[in-house]
Amino acid sequence: MKLSENINTSSGEFAPFISPSDDYLIFTRVIIHEGAPPQMNLFLSFRDNSGTWQKATNLTEKIGLPAKTPFVMMSQARITPDGKYLFFTFFNGKGHMVYWGDAKIIENLNSKE
Is 38 a member of any domain? Predict the structure, then answer.
């Protein structure tokens, strides 16, 4: 089943990860800027009490990883089974490398929603 416009856009989304408790979804969205190469950013959506996915937030902007490349390409987000760490790929100018960080960023964003 196709998800709502809170998740799916005309830009294109792929590489979803849904939390084990089904309360949030992380995915990659292609962002097109006129006159610039496309970017791939991680997005995060929370499911509300009625089961509806909320408007997705750009997680890439919240991670704070400095973009040292002419364009940002982040994808393949995954959370460790213990829920402590967020892993993802990031194009660092030399290739796609695996990065990781504290998964509390998700909890912190959920408390702001």
Answer: yes
Does residue 6 lie in a domain region?
no
Q: What is the pLDDT of residues 74-110, one digit of tens each?
A: 889 999 999 999 999 988 677 788 989 999 999 888 8
The pTM assigned to this predicted structure is 0.88
DSSP-based three-state secondary structure for 54: coil
Dihedral angle over CA of 55, 8, 79, 88, nearest 10: -110
> Where in the sequence is the domain holding 25, given as residue range(s)?
13-112
Strands of the 39-46 sheet, one edge to the other: 13-18, 24-31, 39-46, 57-58
Q: How many structural domains is the chain composed of?
A: 1
